[in-house]
Every structure is written in C-alpha cells, then in structure tokens.
Design goal:
single chain; alpha/beta; five-stranded mixed beta sheet; three-stranded mixed beta sheet; 8 helices; globular
Length: 273
C-alpha cells in the first residue's frame, strides 16, 4: 500500500486548528547574532547535513515542515528492548544476546542518569560547541559497559522488515542507513566531550521482522542481529562550525538540488497558492 500523507494541524486535544506554517515557540527560533544559548538536536543537525536551506528556514525563519505521525510499532520495539536491557542492568548481568557476539564481558551501563540520557525530548546527552552559543544534544537508546576496558559502548535500536538477512556489510553500506552512522558519530562526539571513555565500536541492535512467516496469528517474529560500527567523529567539529556560520547568516543558503522538500516548494510557488 502506498499513500501520500496530507497533514492537518491539531491542538493538544486532537481538535483541528488553523495551520500557520510558522513556529510559535521563541526558543525554537535562532536570531542571527544572538548571544543566548540555543539548542540544536542531533536530528536537526542531520537536517543541516541534508539540506542547509531547509535547516535555515526551520531554525532561523521559523517555517514548520508538515508533521508526520509517530512510528508507534518501532517505538514499542524500543520500549520493550529497554525493559529487557533494564532488567539486565539491575541484575548486573550480560544480555542473552551477548555471548554469541563475544561480549560476555559487557553489561548494560548502570548509571544514575541513564533514563535522562534516553529522554531525547526533555533531557538527553548534551555538549556546548566550543566558542559558540550552540548546545548539541540527543537521546541515546542505550549505553553498555565493557567490564574489561571500562569503556562505555553506544547502542541504537533499529526495527525493520526486510526479506534479506542482516549482515554488517550490507547494513552499513545501505544508502538509507548513512544517517544512522551520523547518529552514532554525534553520540560519540557528545559523550567524549562529557568526559567518558567511549569504546571505538558501537552497535546497532537490529530487529528484523520475518516477512516469510506462514501468517500473523497475533505474533510478529523478529530476528535480532548486532551490527558493529566503528564510529568516526573527526568530521563533526568542522560541520558544526559550518552550521554555526549558517545560523548567523542574514540570508538562507542555497538548497540541495536533490532535496524533494525544496523542489516541491519551488514547484508550488511557481503555480501560485
């Protein structure tokens, strides 16, 4: 089934409201040259990397992109995994999947702020970019701890339904997974600057739904695979400085010629409202 989503503005009670296309919260809009602290999430930084013009129009001009409903099935998988790993965290034992990947020395990281670090909306992990007023922040899915090296390990849960088996090479090579690697790079950058020893290998905990099952029968089967990724944060600081420069520019930058949002906007503007 394929469909095009037309989003309707609703208030907190689910009642239809007038859509203005503009942000109303002042803290979400950056004023070029401002000195006040401004927070940029990991996902908004990824928007900058994808299309600088869209990022500028959102964060500086305050133009809101149409919203989409949450992926509740993926969110539920994340929630259940967190419950499972939290039980291991409390008991101080490795997860059932660790032994087959040679991670018997690893346990979920027992830290008093782990729940805050996983709360991407209100807390998360954060670091102020040097010589700027920008705080980069994001919420991790989980952190593990290597009892031999005393390093923390960054983990991100991913849910999918692919008919092919998950392999490290194919998963990391997939063009649609490049933002996943950026995500890990950013988390490593933030945690390093928070003073933690971060292991060089992070993991995607991939839950792949079985599309070849005989039927649903009230159960969806998943095959779990750990995909190791050696994060690289060497490029981040230069990109953050470029983002800071764009935020403080008086004019929006040019668009990415592959950006479908910009292409749609230009075609619609050409026709007229």
């Amino acid at each position: 089934m394929c469909f095009v989503l037309i989003s309707l503005k609703r208030n907190s009670k689910g009642v239809l409201a007038k859509a203005t296309g503009l942000r109303t919260r002042a803290s979400s809009i950056y004023k070029p040259g401002q000195e006040e602290i401004f927070k940029v999430s990991r996902s908004k930084f990824n928007d900058f990397l994808t299309c600088q013009r869209c990022f500028y129009l959102d964060r500086v001009s305050g133009i809101v992109s149409p919203g989409t409903p949450g992926w509740t099935l993926n969110e539920t998988t994340d929630l259940l995994l967190k419950k499972e790993f939290d039980a291991c965290r409390t008991a101080g034992i490795p997860h059932r999947s660790f032994e087959q990947y040679g991670l018997s020395n690893v346990v979920p990281f027992d830290h008093p702020e782990i729940d805050d670090w996983r709360n991407s909306l209100h807390k998360g992990i954060a670091f102020q970019i040097p010589e700027t007023n920008i705080i980069l922040h994001g919420g991790v899915d989980d952190i593990w701890f290597d009892q031999n090296t005393h390093e923390i390990i960054i983990v991100d849960y991913k849910s999918q339904a692919n008919r092919w088996d998950v392999t490290t090479e194919s998963y990391l090579r997939n063009v649609y997974h490049q933002s996943y690697k950026v995500q890990m790079d950013v988390y490593a950058y933030i945690l390093k600057n928070m003073g933690y020893d971060v292991g060089s290998t992070s993991y995607f905990y991939v839950c792949n739904a079985n599309r070849e099952a005989e039927g649903f029968f009230g159960i969806m089967e998943f095959k779990e695979t750990l995909v190791p990724y050696n994060w690289d944060d060497s490029w981040i600081e230069n990109s953050l400085n470029s983002m800071f420069a764009v935020l403080n520019d008086s004019e929006p930058p040019t668009s990415n010629e592959s950006c479908e949002n910009c292409a749609y906007s230009m075609q619609r503007a050409a026709i007229g409202f």
